[in-house]
Amino acid sequence: MTSLLLGRPLGIPRFAPYLLTLRRCVSDGSPYRGNLGREGILSLGLGSGDHIRLVSKQYQISLPNQNVFSFIPISRLKMNDNSCKFSIMISHIHVFDEASIKYLDSYEHPFAKSVLDMYIKKKKIPLWHKVFAHPVARPFPCKVAVKRIRHALFDALAYYGYDREGRKITKDESSVITNLYGTVKIACGDPKAVCNIKFADLLEQMKQVVAGFEPILAKDKNGEFITAPRPRVNKIQPKQTGSQAISRIGDSKRTDMRSNTRPARRM
Q1: Is 59 helix (H, G, I), strand (E, B) or coil?
Q2: In DSSP terms, which residues pair with 183 in a beta bridge?
Q3: Among 225, 212, 150, which Cα is nearest to 180's?
Q4: What burial class does residue 160 get, using C-beta atoms within 10 Å of its C-beta: 0-12 exposed, 13-18 middle, 19+ buried?
């Protein structure tokens, strides 16, 4: 009776839609697009929350958006075989996880303070990484694939002299790298292939991945990137004058007239 008065079907928990949304974000890594703007600012409802903006600016943690991450081409990684269908995304800054977006809405969520405190404590970790598998298989192969990829990633970082958090642990006087700083996301498009591949082959692929983002995310002892990040430039077409616009319209009309004319039939 209470469920009928509240306007929801019987037997469905009130928090079921949120669990389904959170599971989708965790499984395929897709951002929660319901309340994200183009620039990563929460824009639904009453506007972006001041508590989120304050933490984001003070601790330099960005919201996930398309302008923050950049893809590393697989051809640059020199992989002989990409049977697991990996895709690598990196960012020079720390980025909130998509699974936490539900708690970082424009209104004050009850768990927002706890989630923000968790990320503030996490700032001492230089390298943030996330591994996820696209839900093209059942949940069990996806979980196993994520565990195997994460294990191979940690071993690949140790192979190049880093710990799990991206800090340099080997003493090498010739190297000026102190740590790896930023966010790395590794997506797997074929979880079953990861489950069936030999771990030695998977480790070799993760070594190529680490070798690909190491020179991009490497920092020296002064806290500066060894390879300066390239600034993103938005390609904006120049405004056309009135005469140019009129001539362009005339050219398009002439093109349409030529395309509509048909050759005469031969008798």
Answers
A1: helix
A2: 91, 128
A3: 225
A4: middle
Residue 241 tokens read as: 């004058």
Structure-block tokens of residue 42: 């929460």
CB-CB contact of 42 with 62 (8 Å): no
- Rounded to whole angstroms, the maximal C-alpha distance in the chain is 89
**Residue 182: Cβ-neighbour burial (10 angstroms; 0-12, 13-18, 19+):** buried
Q: What is the dihedral of CA 146, 148, 188, 35, to 10 degrees?
A: 20
**Look-up: residue for tokens 């070594």?**
207
- What pLDDT is attached to residue 244? 56
Q: What is the CA radius of gyration of the chain?
A: 25
Please name which of 69, 66, 71 lies closest in space to residue 38, comparing C-alpha atoms.
66
For 91-139, the pLDDT digits (tens) are 999 999 988 888 887 677 888 889 999 999 999 999 999 999 999 999 9
Would strands 61-62 and 94-95 be described as parallel, antiparallel, or unpaired? parallel
Helical ranges in the chain per DSSP H: 2-6, 16-28, 50-59, 74-77, 112-122, 139-159, 191-196, 199-217, 242-260
Contacts within 8 Å (CB) and 24+ apart, 68-75: 68/40, 68/93, 68/95, 69/95, 69/183, 69/185, 72/212, 72/213, 72/216
- Say if residues 73 and 85 touch (Cβ distance below 8 Å): no
- Residue 193 CB coordination number (10 Å): 19
**Are the C-beta atoms of 116 and 63 separated by less than 8 Å?**
no
